[in-house]
Amino acid sequence: MTSIADLRKSYERAELNEKASLANPLGQFELWLNEALSAELPEPNAMTLATVGSDLRPSTRVVLIKGLDERGPVWFTNYDSRKGKQLAGNPYAALQFHWVELERVVRIEGRVEKISDAESDTYFHSRPLDSRIGAWASPQSQVIEDRSVLVGNAAKYAAKFLLQPPRPPHWGGYRLVPDQWEFWQGRPSRLHDRLRYTLNKGAWVRERLAP
Description:
Elements: H1 25-38, E1 46-52, E2 58-64, E3 67-69, E4 72-78, H2 82-89, E5 92-99, E6 104-114, H3 117-124, H4 129-137, H5 147-161, E7 171-185, E8 193-200, E9 203-208
Antiparallel strand pairs: 1-2, 1-5, 3-4, 4-7, 5-6, 6-7, 7-8, 8-9
Helix pairs in contact: 4-5
């Protein structure tokens, strides 16, 4: 059996430098995201969300980016979930994309806010019917006896709402409003490229960080 301490990889696919990168981090992110999509990576829209609760213990989970503009990335979830409760108490969070095949990582930090009800309604009604029923059926992050609880809830709400389930009041979107982005490109000899963009008086300042 191979020791995990002996697992190593040489990163040699690409480079990231100040001249080739864009001055605006959103543009740089869109460029990399499009390259991840073009490469047909598995779930290129998956991102790790890190939050901190009132007990100061950090927690992470994977969510899917479902919207992006100059205001920041958007995802959807249950507001009563563990992450929802943590964000209610501490609205600062971090996101991370890891595109392993491209040897790239993007980190985003900032303040999180709920998106408008209208935006949440629009996305909710674009989801498959089973997913809309599932938003009602799952008391996310709560302890349940077994899977039959979910199956029973799904049947109950499917019978109640038929083909037109409304958006649950406890379900909707969040937006992370970035004040910092970091782009990481793997390089040989662990001398990786790291560019950080920090918002300063309304303008983005780009700096190189040591790996």
